[in-house]
């Protein structure tokens, strides 16, 4: 299967595996019934462990279409191309045919060869759509990339690992969200999990499977209702934060109080759902800290900020921008909100 090229250690001293089948001490890849290849813990993995991190095989623009993706793959060394072609391809062909016409206009070979070229482009595209991860950069740039080890992680709506591209080390990092027992499958989430089952399943259709994780199959209506409430809360909190940004210092105290009530409810629901991800609980607690500082709740803000630091460290590691931002937030909160106005002028919604 994967044949990754040996390279010198990266910035964080990590060697890519050389084996044809990835086998690390912490996890292994193997077939799982009905869900292709998946990753399984080989040892106990404590919460917060960086299980692995890796560089992208290809990175393309958000706007890239079939020819650009195919070109990026074809430009790779042969062993890396092989690693790409071995990945799962589950997405359906697109209805877009413009790229085929464009290819044809510059093609002067045999018709049969042209059909084969189109098929290769379609296969490259399907692999890309099935396995791509987001790369967000501090300057706001957004790209998409293929990370071959991470691409073997199957989805669950109660994930036990968290993935995020770290631009500081130019790698996708995978961290344990909870203690993981030997034999347990490592699952990340492909989507925002603050939605009820019917919405999550709809969002996952593009990957061509019906999620049957413990949350989706749970007979507990209360759990589904909590996710629905979380969907509403996250939507409202984000909308209100955008309004606050627009109003600047004119946002009334009672509006902060309303947002705080929503945030507190969201945090309670997330605790029940055992969600401790950077994107969910980390997001709400960061806002709570900022609002708390402005509302003169310095003591509570310091506690929330400490939780944010812990969440970012667990999900993203000490070398992440988010962890650094959380340390600044905590410092401000510990200082009793002296710099709270500066802090509040920035948004975490971007
Ligand atoms: C990023 S790949 C994950 C690795 C993949 N299983 C493989 O064999 O390489 C995404 C694809 O894996 C499968 N998959 C991921 N999560 C799944 C799940 N919870 N249940 C069933 N299939 C899943 C789907 O076919 C999906 O399109």
Automatic annotation (TrEMBL):
InterPro entries: SET_dom (IPR001214), SET_dom_sf (IPR046341), SET_domain_protein (IPR053185), TPR-like_helical_dom_sf (IPR011990). Pfam families: SET. Residues 25-191 form the SET domain. This is SET domain-containing protein. It comes from Neoarthrinium moseri. The lineage of its organism: Eukaryota, Fungi, Dikarya, Ascomycota, Pezizomycotina.
């Amino acid at each position: 299967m994967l044949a990754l090229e040996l390279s010198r250690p990266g910035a964080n001293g990590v060697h890519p595996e050389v084996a044809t089948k990835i086998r690390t001490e912490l996890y292994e890849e193997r077939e799982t019934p009905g869900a292709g290849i998946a990753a399984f813990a080989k040892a106990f993995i404590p919460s917060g462990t960086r299980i692995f991190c890796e560089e992208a095989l290809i990175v393309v623009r958000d706007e890239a279409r079939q020819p650009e993706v195919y070109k990026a793959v074809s430009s790779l060394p042969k062993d890396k191309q092989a690693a790409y072609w071995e990945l799962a391809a589950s997405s359906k062909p697109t209805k877009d045919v413009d790229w085929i016409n464009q290819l044809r206009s510059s093609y002067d070979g045999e018709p049969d060869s042209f059909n084969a070229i189109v098929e290769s482009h379609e296969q490259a595209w399907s692999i890309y759509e099935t396995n791509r991860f987001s790369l967000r950069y501090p300057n706001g740039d957004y790209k998409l990339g293929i990370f071959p080890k991470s691409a073997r992680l199957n989805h669950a709506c109660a994930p036990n690992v968290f993935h995020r591209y770290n631009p500081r080390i130019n790698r996708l990092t995978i961290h344990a969200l909870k203690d993981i027992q030997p034999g347990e499958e490592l699952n990340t989430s492909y989507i925002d999990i603050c939605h009820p089952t019917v919405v999550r399943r709809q969002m996952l259709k593009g990957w061509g499977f019906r999620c049957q994780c413990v949350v989706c199959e749970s007979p507990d209506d209360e759990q589904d209702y909590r996710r629905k409430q979380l969907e509403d809360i996250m939507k409202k909190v984000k909308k209100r934060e955008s309004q606050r940004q627009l109003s600047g210092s004119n946002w009334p105290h009672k509006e902060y109080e309303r947002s705080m009530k929503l945030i507190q409810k969201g945090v309670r629901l997330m605790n029940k759902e055992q969600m401790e991800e950077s994107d969910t609980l980390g997001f709400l607690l960061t806002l709570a800290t900022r609002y708390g500082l402005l509302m003169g709740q310095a003591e509570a803000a310091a506690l929330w900020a400490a939780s944010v630091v812990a969440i970012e460290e667990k999900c993203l590691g000490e070398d992440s921008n988010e962890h650094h931002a959380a340390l600044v937030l905590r410092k401000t909160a510990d200082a009793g909100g002296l710099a709270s106005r500066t802090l509040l002028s920035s948004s975490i919604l971007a």
